[in-house]
Structures are given as structure tokens and as C-alpha cells.
Amino acid sequence: MPLINKIPSELTHLIRSGLPAGEDHGDLLFACKTDLAPDGRIDESMLAVTRRHLVVATRSDGAWTLTHSLSLAKIDGLTVEPLVGASALVAEVDGKSIRLLRYTHAVAQDMTDAVESLLHLIGPDGSTDHTEPVAEEPVPDWSSREAHLRTFGRLWSFCLPHWRKLVIAMVVTVAASAIDLLPPYLTMILVDQVLVDQSMFIWLPTIVALLAVSRIVHTGVTIISGRMLAVLGDRLAYDARSELLNVLQLLPLKYYDMQQTGGLMARIARDAKSIHYFWIDFAPQVVQQGLLVIGMTAVLFYLNWELALLVLIPIPAIIFASVHIKRYLMWFYGRSWDSWATFFERVNDALAGIRVVKIFAQEKRQSRDMQLENEKVFTAERNIHVRSRTVRPLLAFLVSVGGLLVLWYGGLLVQSNAMTIGMLVAFLLYLAMFYSPVQQLTGMADWIPEMMTAITRTFEVIDSPIEEYTPAGIVDVPRFEGRLQLQDVNFGYVAHQPVLKGINLHVEPGEMIGLVGHSGAGKSTLIKLMCRFYDVDDGRILIDGTDVRRMDLTQLRSQIGYVEQDPFLFSGSVADNIRFGNQEASREEIIEAAINANAHEFIVKLPDGYDTPVGERGGRLSGGERQRVAIARAILHDPRILILDEPTSALDLETEKKIQEALGRLMEGRTTLAIAHRLSTLRDADRLLVLKNGEPVELGTHEELLDRQGEYYRLVQLHTNVSSIVGVEG
Amino acid sequence: MSFLDPAAVHLERRDDQPPTLSIAGDLFFSVKIRQAFPLSRESRYITFFDQDDEYLGILADPSSCDEETGRIIRDEIEWRYFRPRITRIVEMEGRGGTSLFSVETDRGDVKIPMRDLREGMVELAPGRILITDENGNRYEISDLDRLDRRSRRLIRRLI
């Protein structure tokens, strides 16, 4: 619900002024801000809704004006009209269409939610429903800047189970920082008391030994803290990846419709790793370098406050330069990432499509295109390296300025006996150690947005709403009989753009229904609804009298079998793929299923039989072989309801016959919904449902529909003509 | 039931010829014998094909057959599936993207050229490794734990 919490007071007055006087409007139910004015300017508009009224206001030159005020009772309908690059909300009032407001895709989701709620208030027949709209579970918004704070909170929550190890690692890190401060101090004593004065020359071996011990202890402590943090970081990255992998399996299909698989892969591989970097590199570095800076500042001031002040002179310049150089270079890094991404995309395309490339004799052109991308990568990389190799020495020069100042003034102090040589040497040693953490800390400030973005993206996926596997008021249906009812089913992938309209169908157990229609008629969508990959917008789908939305999702899907048009096989052996839906199946059962799917014979002729790896996506098998393995998989799954998307690709007659036989065995005794492309399947179907533009136009047997000479008759005629041209037997 | 009855299956061989199969009295000459699960269940699920490579049937458990049939099945499997078992890794050399394993096997010493270790070495079960060299030849380590310490160390670097 796009409820806006803080509506400007002048707008509240304006909205109130747009409501008819003398009626009880109650509180504002919700309001939604959009990004276009009615005349197409980029400016704000506001849709505000009370229990009885709808008000639209628009801002122009900073001032809000009321553009529409409508009683909900008068609205007969609300539609979202898709425009190019934008959408419009249109209300039907007294037979007239009123364009309420326009908005870009950036706020489309908010508006879709708002329209949903409005429709809920108006009711299906235009009658106003005064009940409160149901509040949805709020989905955390991880994209906003303030969300970074929340991200820190989540990072802690990941770390909580391992807090003891983290505390120990941090303590060890602090110890390493403290030990770091010791050698310059010992060097001071060595120079002043042992080398220059020679009064304590006897102490030389002891001080050298102490220096050696401090180095050894420092090395040991650094190794321990490094190892502890590495293991901890890897464990945290593992935890994040595990959570991601679990969630990815449970996300609804519509989530994947909106995401590129490549992008998700990057989140698993790269972004989740950022949690590792945070705990291994970032947090300990901040602690260690921060402590070093504080500790060394204190020591420097303790040794000589005047010199210490000189040391601080170049620091503002170093901070300023580090921040700006980093930001300047970030542009070039961004360019480099982009060019690498395009390069990989191009190479991946060229390799995946190598057959097409060769068949069209386009090797040289492909090679040239890839070379072009390679050059872009070269340019981008060169730009970074040339610039970073320029700025680093410049930064080093700034650092050396501090050293020069200390040498100059320190020299004067030594000459006037205000300072010993040993102290000057110690000062210079501390100085060398001092600027490095300052630079590193400055650099880290710029790391934060980059790292936080990656970590935030990880949490974005983890916190996406998953499918509701066990809804409230669940009805237990352990074994379907197979009676299917579709009642007034309406559905659209985008709200208010229906793909299926008014589907009604009653299927008896064991009946086979063929779904027929042009491509885009809604056949595949109907199948997706049956599998509950999506939920209907209106109407109901019942199995044995129970709404599928009241069933446990696992129970429902475990009783539905789906044979796709181009079946997906997983990398693994043939046997692994056949037993995919039934992991408990014995080898005998696998063989039985394969025999029934007419797959056994070709499988045992493979060099490794059922142990043969099928390759990525089953690529080592032919199309007909993949089909039969998929049928065997469905047979072993033993579903009560079978959903079948018949392959459109023409196979050789022998294979075709084997697949048809196998499908016949698979359909036996099961309720089947089949998208049919072959005349033989259409003839065998008990009834056919003909869809046109998402609406059911005919229902009956093959013969009945032919006699009717309607849509089905035309489709069959078309099919027969095509078949006779390509010589495919129907 | 799609499986053959072991009591009705009999194999015999004459003069080193491919075997003759009798299924419930029907005779098939020069039959081919293949394993349905040659990697994961070698001892069971034996399939028979006639001389035209037409499928005849599958036997779930050949140990229930008579002694001669069992022996011929073992011989035929041994003949069809050439997969030397590695008993010791002598040396592993890596050179410019290819590797050369010098190994001792139950069939003699051999050098295995490998191009792609990820594809070429598959752990079928814990400690059981199938190695396919760049020419498609196959070798097997039946039980890694039974190899000597050095061989185990060399292999564990790769899997």
C-alpha cells in the first residue's frame, strides 16, 4: 500500500476542500504520489482516497491545485490505460471516461497497488465497499540511503551467532596495533642511550632482542587475527549465500519474470562475498588503522607537541586528495566494469551460438565484434592504470611534505639541544607509519557506499516475499481424484491488462482436455495458473471442490505433473533426471518408467546407460530423447493431474510415434490438460477448449467443433494446409 | 513386469563366438550384453541385444542365473567395458594447461594425458573416481583409501 505518511499540510487542506461538505469522510485511507502532471510535465500529482471519495491534485510551479474530486459511488469502473513510456488512470463515470492522472513506469507498481485498493473499495459492480483494505505485509525497502543503517543492523544479525570469535579477533587486532607502536620507541632509546651516548652500550643486545621479539609477536598476532577473521568472514559469506540459495528456490515465478538470471548469479557469487569483505577487510581495518592513528597521535604529542603539530599540517590535503582521487577514479572503474560485462556477454553469446555462427559463415565478423569489445576493455583498463599510477606518486609526495617539515624543524630542535637525535629518528619512524592509516581510512570512506550497495542487494533478495506454501485455513488433500473446475477465471500478468478472461471449465477425473488456439491466445498462461505459478485475479480454480489457494503448495504441486514443450533436464545422469520428482524411486522403478516412456532402449545403448551424464540442460541428448526422459520423469512422479505442452518441433516419424505412445501411457487414468499441436492429439482428446485472445470461444469434441465450422474449424484447416506443405502427418 | 525371469534366461558360448541367449526357449545368436548402470550398479541390471542390436530384455539380478550364464555375463562385461583400475599414481606432471599422470593399473603401467581436470575427473561416490583422458579412455580409482599415501595426496590435490 503506497500510503504516504506525511502529506504536506497545505495539501491536506486542499484535499479536504475537494470533499463535499456535510458528509462524514472519516480519515484519509491512502494517498499515492505520481510523477507527471496531466499535461505531461514532470511534476507531482497526488491521488488521495477516503471512504467515500477520490481526490486528485496536481502541483504546478510549486503550488497544488485540485483537478478531480469524485464520489466513489459514482465510479462505474477504473482502468489503467497503458501508454508508451507512461500509463494513465481512467475512471468511468456516467458512461464517460475521465482521465484522472498520468504517471511513468517509475511509480507504476505503487499505482497498481493503489488501483487494486480502490477497486476493492468500489466493489466489482460499482457498489462502494466501506471495509478497510487489507494491509499487506510491508516489504522492507532496501534501496533507500537510510536503509544502509538497516543494512548495518542486518550485518550484525549475521554476525551475532559468532560474536565470541569476532570479539577475540578484534582484541587480537587491537593487540597487533599496540605492538606496532613499540619499535620506534625502542629505536629512540637505542639511538640516544646506546649509540650516541654509549653510556648504556651494554644494553644493545637487549634492545635489539626486544625489537626482534616485538616483530615476532606482531607477526604472530597478525597471523592469528588474520586467520580468525578470514575463517569468520568465509563463514559469514557462506551463511549469506546459504540464505540466498534457500530463498531463491522459494521465490514465486513472477519474481524471476522480472529478474535477469545473470544478475541473480552475480548476487550469489559476488554480492554475498561483500559480507566477507566487510568483516575481513573493512571492519578490522577501520579498528586497527583507527587505533593506530589515535595511538600514534598521542605518542607524537607526548614526544614533542610542536613537531606533532607540523605532522598534522599535510593531513587535510591528504584527506582532500584521497577522497577526490578515489571519486575521480571511480568513474573509470565503473567504465571498466561495464566494458568487462559487455565483453563477457559478447563472448558468451558467441560461444553459445557457435553453431549458428558457423552455419552462417560469420566467424570473421564475430571475431571482429569480440575484438572491438576487447579493445574497449583495453582502453578502460589503460585509463585506470595510467591514472592510478599518476596519482599515487603525487599522494606520496604530499606525504613526504610532512617528513620534510619534521626534518627541518626537528633538525633545528636537535641543533638547539631541545631534542635528541633518537627522538627525531623515532618521530620520523612514527611519521612513516602515521600517514598510511590516514590514507587508508580516507579511502575506506569511499568504500562504504560501494560495499553497502552490494550487501544491500544481497538482503534485497533475502527479504523478497517468498511463495506462501502453507496458507491459512489450509485444506488437506493428500490424494486428488482429479476433478477440475475453473470458475470465471480472469488473469493478467500486469494488473488490469487481462490475458485470460471469463474462463469456465469443468473437467471430470481422467478426462483429457485439449487446449487449442493461436499463439498468444492464453493457453500457456492457463497452464501456469493450474500449476499455481500465478494466482487468478478473479474467479477460482478448484480441484476436487477445493480452491487451489487453500491447498498446501507442495501437496498441490506434488500431484500435478508437467511435461514441457522443450523439457529442461538438469546436469546429472539420466537416472538422476528420471528420479527428479521421486527421490525414493528404486532402480527397478526408474527402468519401468523409462520402458513405459519408450526411453529405456536408447538409454541402455548409451555407453554409460542410465549413468550417462545428460550435460548442461540435457544438451548431450537429442530433442526426442529429452522428451522421453521427461515423460519417464513424469511417469515416476505419478501425478493425478497431468499438464502437457506438446512439442511443436517436427521429429522423425519413428521418434514421433514413440513419443505419442509414451504420452498415451502417461495420460492413462489421469486428468489431463494438454496444449495440443498435433491433429492426432486433438482427435484423441475428450473435449477441446478453444481460446481466442484470452477468451473461451468454443468447447466440445473434435467432431462437434468441426461440424460447427467456427474458430476450431479454421485452425484445423490452417493446420492441415501447413501440414500438407511440410509433409507432416497429423 | 518388464524384467526377465532369471530362471528362463540361459547363455552359452561356442568356440569363442559371441554368446547365444535362450529366453524361455527362444534362441538368439551373437547377443550383445550391456549394463544399464555401468558406473553406479555394475553387478546388476544386465541388458541383452540381438545381433541387429534390437533390444531383447533386461535382467535385474544376474546372480540368480545359473553358473555358466553368470560367468558369460561377467566375461562379456569385462570384454565390453575397458576401464583399467588404477593401483598407484607414480607421477603427475603439469605442462601448459595439460597434465600427464603416470599410473600403475591392474592392466599395466600407463600414462594418462589430461586436458580438462574438472571434466575429466569425476567422483562417482566418496573415494571412487572415474578418470577420462583427453582421448576418451577411462580409468577408475575404485577406492582412494586403498591407494598408498603418496598417491592419495596427489589425487586429493585435484578433487
Task: Explain the layout of strands and helices.
The complex is a heterodimer of chains A (730) and B (159).
Chain A lengths: L8 H9 L12 E5 L10 E5 L3 E8 L2 E9 L3 E8 L3 E8 L2 E9 L3 H15 L24 H13 L3 H18 L1 H15 L7 H47 L2 H5 L3 H43 L1 H8 L2 H38 L1 H6 L3 H53 L5 H42 L21 E8 L8 E8 L4 E5 L6 H8 L7 E6 L2 E2 L5 H6 L1 E4 L10 H5 L8 H10 L3 H6 L17 H15 L3 E5 L7 H15 L3 E5 L3 H6 L2 E6 L2 E6 L1 H7 L2 H16 L4
Parallel strand pairs in A: 10-15, 10-16, 13-14, 14-15
Antiparallel strand pairs in A: 1-2, 2-3, 3-4, 5-6, 6-7, 8-9, 8-11, 11-12, 16-17
Helix pairs in contact in A: 3-13, 4-6, 4-8, 5-6, 5-13, 6-8, 6-13, 8-9, 8-13, 9-12, 10-12, 10-13, 12-13, 17-19, 19-20, 22-23
Chain B lengths: L8 E4 L7 E4 L2 E3 L3 E4 L10 E4 L5 E5 L7 H14 L5 E10 L2 E8 L2 E7 L2 H4 E5 L2 E5 L5 E4 L7 H8 L3
Antiparallel strand pairs in B: 1-2, 2-3, 4-5, 5-6, 7-8, 8-9, 10-11, 11-12
Cα-atom radius of gyration of chain B: 19 Å
**CATH architecture classification name of the largest domain in chain A:** Up-down Bundle
Structural class of chain A: alpha+beta
Please name the CATH topology of the largest domain in chain A. ABC transporter transmembrane region fold
Kindly report the name of the CATH homologous superfamily of the largest domain in chain A.
ABC transporter type 1, transmembrane domain
Individual helix count of chain B? 3
Q: Whole-Å distance between the termini of chain B?
A: 41 Å
Strand order of the largest sheet of chain A: 13-14-15-10-16-17
The low-pLDDT segments of chain B are: none
User: Going across the major beta sheet of chain B, what is the strand order?
Assistant: 1-2-3
- The number of distinct β-strands of chain A equals 17
What is the arithmetic mean of pLDDT of chain B?
A: 89
Query: What helical percentage do the residues of chain B reach?
Result: 10-25%
Instruction: Tell me the strand percentage band of chain B.
Output: 35-45%
Which range best describes the helical content of chain A: under 10%, 10-25%, 25-40%, 40-55%, 55-70% or over 70%? 55-70%
Q: Could you describe the largest sheet of chain A, including whether it forms a barrel?
A: 6 strands, mixed
Spatial shape of chain B: elongated
Radius of gyration of chain A, CA atoms, in whole angstroms? 36 Å
